[in-house]
Design a protein that fits this description.
314 residues
Length: 314
């Protein structure tokens, strides 16, 4: 089904606006009604463009019909400037499936493949997606860490700037995820002084000054929420994210989209743990799920306002 029937837009114009406006569009992952509602509440409160991101495993968890029924029920309007995006599509088939469902954007992640294979797979996806005006994100370089059953790795490889121009020209991709020191999951850094490779980002941006770049594995991992989780029975010692100031700096250097997943999971879990610990007599799921939804909304709003800089740009 055509994504416009759901009030969705693709990411092409929103990325150009972000590129020239010096901000990034947040891509927030969701997995159920509560997490979708939390993200939409944040977007509408801040008037920010957003990307609703769904991994293959999250799509499998929700199911095709349930997911698209929730999107339909959200009553999204084109003026909301919201895209529905397949995160880390592992194959042409996965991307085609999302496009046929009504996604307005897909990511084909063939970054673990040899360079030539990555080009071939990505080009096949763009050829199909562009027939339906669906935008395509691809990836060069690999990120370590674990986020999902189809998003994990033990090794990281920085993006080679000299490969970028050839890859973009050969694939016709609309945006490119690069590896400059971010990683998936809640344990992104071994020490607080770790820096992103802004030299690599600067080199790529100088070669492709008008081309939108993407950061994955860029959650901030709020320490106050980690403390709440650990206080109420969790075991997340040594969880560290990417420094907010570094992320904000990246938005001034062609980073037009920043993916956020772990922060939202942490916000949700912290609220559930705290609520159940503080209210041992409660057993109605609506009580702790509402607390979790509100916690997640607060984190989304904070990141929109203080990291992405995308408030009032919808």
């Amino acid at each position: 089904m055509k994504y416009s029937k759901f009030g969705l837009v693709n990411t092409n114009q929103m990325f150009q606006d972000a590129l020239h406006g010096g901000y990034a569009v947040p891509a927030f992952n969701f997995y159920n009604m509560e997490t979708l509602s939390a993200i939409l509440d944040a977007a509408r409160t801040t008037h920010s463009p957003i990307i609703l991101a769904v991994s293959e495993s999250a799509l499998k968890y929700m199911g095709n019909d349930m997911l698209m029924a929730m999107i339909s029920g959200a009553k999204i309007k084109p003026s909301d400037n919201i895209a529905l995006h397949l995160d880390h599509g592992s194959s042409f088939a996965a991307c085609k499936h999302a496009i046929d469902l009504g996604f307005s954007s897909v990511m084909i992640d063939a970054s673990a493949q040899p360079f030539s294979n990555n080009i071939d797979i990505t080009r096949r996806v763009t050829d199909y997606a562009h027939k339906f005006d669906v935008s395509v994100e691809s990836e060069l370089g690999t990120l370590a860490g674990i986020e999902d059953e189809n998003t994990f790795g033990t090794d990281s490889t920085y993006t080679n700037p000299t490969d970028v121009e050839q890859f973009v020209a050969a694939t016709n991709t609309d945006s490119l995820a690069i590896a400059i020191g971010t990683s998936h999951g809640a344990y992104k850094r071994t020490h607080d002084d770790a820096k992103l490779r802004f030299d690599i980002l600067s080199d790529i941006a100088s070669r492709m000054p008008d081309f939108p770049l993407v950061l994955h594995g860029a959650s901030n991992i709020p320490s106050d929420l980690i403390s709440i989780i650990n206080k109420h029975g969790g075991k997340m010692q040594n969880a560290r994210g990417i420094d907010a100031a570094q992320l904000r700096h990246a938005t001034q250097m062609n980073i037009c989209k920043i993916n956020v997943d772990s922060d939202l999971r942490i916000a949700f879990t912290a609220a559930v743990r705290e609520f159940l610990s503080s209210h041992p007599d409660k057993f109605n799921p609506r009580d702790f799920l509402n607390a979790a939804r509100q916690s997640m909304t607060r984190v989304c709003i904070s990141e929109i306002e203080h990291i992405m800089g995308s408030a009032n740009h919808a």
